[in-house]
TrEMBL record, chain A:
<keyword id="KW-0596">Phosphopantetheine</keyword>
<keyword id="KW-0597">Phosphoprotein</keyword>
<dbReference type="GO" id="GO:0031177">
    <property type="term" value="F:phosphopantetheine binding"/>
</dbReference>
<protein>
    <submittedName>
        <fullName>Actinorhodin polyketide synthase acyl carrier protein</fullName>
    </submittedName>
</protein>
<dbReference type="InterPro" id="IPR036736">
    <property type="entry name" value="ACP-like_sf"/>
</dbReference>
<dbReference type="InterPro" id="IPR020806">
    <property type="entry name" value="PKS_PP-bd"/>
</dbReference>
<feature type="domain" description="Carrier">
    <location>
        <begin position="7"/>
        <end position="81"/>
    </location>
</feature>
<dbReference type="InterPro" id="IPR009081">
    <property type="entry name" value="PP-bd_ACP"/>
</dbReference>
<dbReference type="Pfam" id="PF00550">
    <property type="entry name" value="PP-binding"/>
</dbReference>
UniProtKB/TrEMBL annotation, chain B:
<dbReference type="InterPro" id="IPR020841">
    <property type="entry name" value="PKS_Beta-ketoAc_synthase_dom"/>
</dbReference>
<dbReference type="Pfam" id="PF02801">
    <property type="entry name" value="Ketoacyl-synt_C"/>
</dbReference>
<dbReference type="InterPro" id="IPR000794">
    <property type="entry name" value="Beta-ketoacyl_synthase"/>
</dbReference>
<comment type="similarity">
    <text>Belongs to the thiolase-like superfamily. Beta-ketoacyl-ACP synthases family.</text>
</comment>
<feature type="domain" description="Ketosynthase family 3 (KS3)">
    <location>
        <begin position="1"/>
        <end position="403"/>
    </location>
</feature>
<dbReference type="InterPro" id="IPR014030">
    <property type="entry name" value="Ketoacyl_synth_N"/>
</dbReference>
<keyword id="KW-0808">Transferase</keyword>
<dbReference type="InterPro" id="IPR014031">
    <property type="entry name" value="Ketoacyl_synth_C"/>
</dbReference>
<dbReference type="InterPro" id="IPR016039">
    <property type="entry name" value="Thiolase-like"/>
</dbReference>
Amino acid sequence: MQKLSLDDLFDMLKSCGGDVAGLATTPEVMEMPFDALGCDSLALLETAALIRRELGVVIPDDQVVEMSTPRALIDFVNGSLVD
Amino acid sequence: MTAVVVTGIGVIAPNGRNASEFWSATLSGRTGIGPLTRFDATSHPAVLAGQIDGFDPVEQIPRKLLPQTDVSTQFALAAAAEALADANVDPARFSRYGTGVVTSNATGGFAFTHREFQKLWTQGPGAVSVYESFAWFYAVNTGQISIRHGLRGPGCVLVSEQAGGLDAIGNARRAIRLGTPVMVTGGVDSSFDPWGWASHVSSGRLSRGRDPERAYLPFDVDANGYVPGEGGALLVLEEASSARARSARLYGEIAGYAATFDPRPGSSERPPGLRRAAELAVADAGLRPTDIDVVFADGSGVRNLDAVEAAALADLFGPGRVPVSAPKALTGRLYAGGGPLDVTTALLAIRDGVIPATAHTSAVPASYGLDLVLREPRRAELRSALVLARGKGGFNSAVVVRCTDG
């Protein structure tokens, strides 16, 4: 299955109430805390629900709020897709 | 006692998407009532609404708020931003808790919730937006306005159907008297999705008329129910000396406020509470009924409720002794938005020395003893205005606004 890219994730965050419009998807952004990217816990929960619907990957609510950066989220999703 | 003044106005109404559009429509008699087009309502018993067309939330509010807000909250955010800009208030210049928000809302985030319920029943709980958790909620407009503008002081919501918008203004006035220098207050409603519309129809008070100029006729012999509208108004209220110190423009003073409840139907010989609310608000302003220059009536458009209001006014002021108008004939009844929009009308009427007419109403029963302003706006020197609102369930609220000298 197609891997989740940072661009894909940003599109999802935008449609889920994350305030990432106008941010470039640079490698540094991968390591930035979601807080600093304008994404609160609700935006992440909403994004996790979208990932579940679109990619079939289930991220438990208590784990998604612990994922502090795009890298953590993308690694989890892509790791699950491999399995 | 601390005087509380209005320094900013924001309007989102069926006949005007900002305060100046609304005021010119109100004076020229341009109606916002027409066929409901948000969905196919043609099979419903009521088909007319005061609908806001051409509102683009993308132009009005931050993009990140779009997925988490009902259209009613988008309206509220647009009106609050207009009011704060109009007041030229920068919340950051006040102390951390020196600015707050009190709004009213009667129907919640209906359209948003309808959409999420559809997802729930067709796709399952995993498809329901997390934002449903607050997007439906009566208090959400207060919260979103507070967050967007950094208004960290007192925050609350009042829910009392059409009376609620005046209750919010009364509560904001109290917050200022208790020491918060700036409050954003008012109310907005919108519930024109199929589910929301069903809730309006079930009140039994909607007009079944199909002619936009004949459907909602407050105080008319042919009054036969009301047309629901959407939108409302947000105001910036400030402590008067602080507003004067920053050379703010003053629209007028919120001089009096009162609220009463009707006795339970059939339980009492006591009369409905509207007259007492009006009387208490006038007294709260330190005025006598003879000091009131104009009344902006609740104007239910339901025959027996019109009669109750007319009797209350005739009793308090004397038959025909004060000009009365219900400019909401051009917007429909806006629920929580109705009172603040009427307060806006009162302030602009005082400013411009003109009473807008009650559009479309043509024949008032003589027994009402009402001097209803009909057909054309009436020139008049106005210093004090009484605004009345009744909410279904027995709520009566009244606000007195007064011109500020200098």
